[in-house]
Amino acid sequence: MRVALVSEHASPLSTIGGVDAGGQNVHVAELATHLSGKGVDVVVHTRRDDPSLPRRIRIAPGVVVDHVDAGPARPVPKDELLAHMGAFAGDLRRCWAAEPPDVVHSHFWMSGLAALAAVPAGVPVAHTFHALGVVKRRHQGMRDPSPRGRLAEERRIARRADLVIATCQDEIAELARMGADLRRVTIVPCGVDLERFHPDTPAERRPAGLHRIVMIGRLVGRKGVDDMIRGLRHLPRTELVVAGGPPIAELDRDPEVRRLRAVAGQVGVGDRVTFRGSLPRPEIPPLLRSADVAVCAPWYEPFGMVALEAMACGVPVVTTAVGGMLDTVVDGETGLHVPPRRPGALAHAVGGLLADPERRRRMGAAGRQRAEQRYGWDRIAGATLAAYATLLTTQMAEAEASA
């Protein structure tokens, strides 16, 4: 099978934790690699953001990244990329006319827009939203920087795609309200690298005498880092380590880092909050393993990959009860759920775990077991491949019926 993955802003080669680099980049890279391990030829089409990049680069056996020329060859915020999707689609159209894939799988709404505009007749399109504009608008209101028309385009994609692959149960209800035919929707969650994220990997050294909380992700307001900072004043002898955002040398110039440092100063915990900036992927498991508790506190979250990575490392998690973390984190067993935007509730949950080492150990072991049973990338790639196969079979049957 030949599969084209379309990921317009989230390259599998990007550094995680940057402005627009996060779980989607990891998802696309891991899915491509593990599909190829099952005999699939994969091309990942992503926008060129560096003039020095070759047009095509092989990143694993059977996996090629294709850098599409669409807009300036430099980083562009994803919310400014819509104007370049016509050029992106035109390039895909030429590429697929010469070498059509068997299945196109687009990731994020602008990729879906380009894929549906470019796909040859008879080639089915599967789509994964990763994040829905209607949910973002609900939580951010007028502060939502998404391009005008995003919600209407997402409704169109939900109705036109041959298959929508949702990542969690919470997404299904949203898709139904958008008019998606739920007979053409299936759930395949994100996965985790069980070898990289493992309880037996070495932990980063940390200061003696302090508990440690770790948060990892893009530094944007909706991730709730300030809620944990405000809660830290109720947790003596505890440090908070935050990874994500720009490289460490650029942290002082980052507006969100400056805002979060100001919050820490206001509540008197500035000396117990450390910002690490974006980290290379190999440095993330040792950091997670050094934590007593990993915290994910977003206002909303399409999936929540960091919580799953912490569980795979055997670290208990405290998460807000939103999105995919309602599926992955079993409240009271592998971690704890709290309401979003509630610093006091966050501090209470974390504090209870910090005071109970045996409970942390049990939750960590249960989290690792759940990750092994449900979320290994080999299992996720197999479920995705099965979805493609069903899609092709259904399309063939529909074509025969209409002949």
Polypeptide structure, described:
The protein has an eight-stranded mixed sheet, with helices on both faces. Mean pLDDT is 93; it is low at 15-20. It is 39% helix and 17% strand. The chain contains 14 helices and 14 strands. The protein has helices at residues 23-36, 85-98, 109-118, 133-140, 150-160, 169-177, 225-231, 255-266, 284-289, 305-312, 325-328, 343-354, 357-374, 377-402; strands at residues 2-6, 41-47, 56-60, 63-68, 103-107, 125-128, 163-166, 185-187, 211-216, 238-243, 273-277, 293-296, 317-320, 335-338. It is of the alpha/beta class and 403 residues long. It folds into two domains: 2-191 and 377-402, Rossmann fold; 211-374, Glycogen Phosphorylase B (Rossmann fold).
Set out the fold topology.
Layout: E1 2-6, H1 23-36, E2 41-47, E3 56-60, E4 63-68, H2 85-98, E5 103-107, H3 109-118, E6 125-128, H4 133-140, H5 150-160, E7 163-166, H6 169-177, E8 185-187, E9 211-216, H7 225-231, E10 238-243, H8 255-266, E11 273-277, H9 284-289, E12 293-296, H10 305-312, E13 317-320, H11 325-328, E14 335-338, H12 343-354, H13 357-374, H14 377-402
Parallel strand pairs: 1-2, 1-5, 2-4, 5-6, 6-7, 7-8, 9-10, 9-12, 10-11, 12-13, 13-14
Antiparallel strand pairs: 3-4
Helix pairs in contact: 1-14, 2-3, 3-5, 7-12, 10-13
Short description, anyone?
The chain is 39% helix and 17% strand.
Name the descriptors.
403 residues, alpha/beta, Rossmann fold, 2 domains, 6-stranded parallel beta sheet, 14 strands, 39% helix
